[in-house]
Amino acid sequence: MLSTRPGTARDVGRLARTTRRGHLALLVAAAALGAGGLFVLLYATSVHAVPGNSDGATVILEGKALSAGHLTLNHWFLSLDSFWWVDVPFYALAVLAVGVRPELLQAVPAVLGALVVAVGAWLAAGRSRGAAALAGAGTVVAVLALPSHALAFFLLQGPLHVGTALYALLAFACVRRYRPGRVRWVLAVVLVAAGTLGDLQMLVFGAAPMLGGGVLAMVRRRELRAGAAAVSAAVCGAVLALAGRELAKLVGTYTINSPAPGASLREMATNLRLVGVYGARLFGLGSAGFGSGGMPAALLAVHLVALAALLAGFAIAAARLVAALVAGRRGAEEDEEAWRLDDMLLLAFLADLAIFVYLTPAPLPSYARYLTASAIFGAVLAGRAAARLAALLARGVPAAALAGLGVVVVCLLAAGTGYALGQPDPSQPASELGTYLAAHGLTRGIGDYWSASIVTVESKGAVVVRPVTGLPAGRIVAYTRNSSSTWYEGKTFQFLVYNPALPFGGVDEQSASATFGPPSEKTAVDGYLVLRWPHPLSAPVPPGA
Asked: Which band of pLDDT confidence, cut at 50, 70 and 90, is reported for residue 480?
């Protein structure tokens, strides 16, 4: 017999609320633990795969400027991918927390990588539950959190457009519904604008796929309103970015360098073939030019399963789109939120491939960085395909076999990552150089780009080295790319350093002698050559820079 004593219903309600709070607390604790573990894994992978260079050091110094209140980065010389409101705010927060430290070269990319994996896993799981959600999210984690050495090198190195891909994923998530709601729509606009202000590639694999996805939604449903939210968010985001740039110019902001010319038609034809070659190398099919990170060939080859999953996810999404367009309005009757997101991811994947084809001027492995975003979008597509397959099989022998195969693949990928992490970390000569310079009281210097800012960061700011370049006439001046004019104006320097084995920008003993006279001292330090003079040095900013 049920009790009818006063307060019983109230007690039951209180118990239910307490239980829900307990479940929520457990969920939050599990999520925090998972995020922490993911960060530690990606940080360790980054330390092993990426020794750090002046590109990564420069964005730390940008973050330092931003954290000091220079919100528009006035006096800086930057490129179209300045990462102003993409990666730089993350570095600014990190610098506020711990100061300029070499650990940030790996820590911030690991944070961005962890966010990409988390958001990608969430989007891959979608509305699935149970085994299907696990299959979708697990696919993304397996591909991106347990990467090959080559993929880790680009995915966990800052700043190589990973933060921009994160903004694009979040923007897609905001407009994946027919009526996304005012808050989600505004957030999508802000993400597109912020991403574009920091990296023009956001227009190509962020805004354009949103706009294209909106148009496809109109065609699928035979209704203009069906894609209005996505189209308007993409357009308004781009317009807001343009307005933001013009406003920043009024109050004073960074100067944008002339963009590098795109590839010629002949080079683009070559690059079309390189998409397959470099894509395969990123996923373990050979290591020539990319390195293996110490992974045995057999474990490296397991990453081909990840590549196969990416290609399958792309093919399935493309086939579903074509089938839906043929079917007309009937093809839009399935899960609308799912196909909207699939369409945007598919277009983003293709857009990033187009970036690689257009921006790669030479067949060098370093340009595989332009394929990183496509690996991210492809991993999410693969995860969404895996979730659908798991839901279709549901249970029984096929489902168990698929789950077993997935577990084996993940274990092999983890074994490869563990094996690589057990190898010695790559050396960082700039650290030894910074130690030598500080020990000899040499705290202010100039050097070629790749020998400059990295020393500043590796020495935690104890030694400041500013980048310079040689003019055609052979004289050395300030390097007006990835630098600030305040580094040079009214400043004098004690030494010049460059790497004779990796000459860059015409900075060498000959150009240094032509500018400052013959050096009085020359010292070799771990591959670098340090030149000194009995008088202070200066590096003026070229007129018109």
From this structure: very high
How many residues belong to the chain? 545
Tell me the percentage of the chain whose pLDDT exceeds 90.
78
Residue in the structure block whose two tokens are 């032509």: 514
Q: If we measure between CA atoms, which residue out of 246, 256, 91, 87 comes closest to residue 167? A: 87
**Dist. CA 194–CA 198, nearest whole Å:** 6
458/542 Cα distance (integer angstroms): 28
Give the other-Cβ count within 10 Å of 523's Cβ: 16
Using a cut of 0.90, tell me whether the model's pTM lies above it.
yes
Kindly report the number of other CB atoms within 10 A of residue 24's CB atom.
Answer: 10
What total of structural domains would you count in the chain? 2
Q: Has residue 45 been placed in a domain?
A: no
> 60 or 127, which is more confident?
60
Let me know whether 189 and 77 are in one domain: yes
Compute the half-sphere exposure of residue 537: CA atoms within 13 Å on the CB side of its CA.
30
DSSP structure string for 33-72: HHHHHHHHHHHHHHHHH----HHHHHHHHHHHHHHTT-TT
Residue 4 maps to a domain: no
pLDDT digits (tens, 9 = 90+) for 221-242: 889 999 999 999 999 999 999 9
3-state secondary structure of 291: coil
CA separation for the pair 168, 436 (Å, rounded)? 43
Q: Report helix, strand or coil for 434.
A: helix
C-alpha separations of 88 from 102, 195, 408 in Å = 16, 11, 39
Between 512 and 293, the more confident residue is 512
Range of the domain at 531: 429-537
Q: Which of 78-87, 255-264, 423-432 has the lowest mean pLDDT?
A: 255-264
Q: Angle of helix 162-174 relative to helix 104-125, nearest 10 degrees? A: 30
Give the max Cα distance, the chain. 103
Give the pLDDT of residue 19: 65
Helices 429-439 + 449-458 axis angle, to 10: 70
Whether pLDDT at 1 is above 50: no
User: How far apart are alpha carbons 164 and 193 in whole angstroms?
Assistant: 11
Q: How far apart are CA 177 and CA 213, in angstroms?
A: 11
| Structural domain ending residue among the three candidates 375, 405, 421 | 421
Q: Are 463 and 528 in contact (CB under 8 A)?
A: no
Omega into 159 within 30° of 0, i.e. cis?
A: yes
- Residue 268, pLDDT > 80, answer yes
Higher pLDDT, 351 or 31: 351
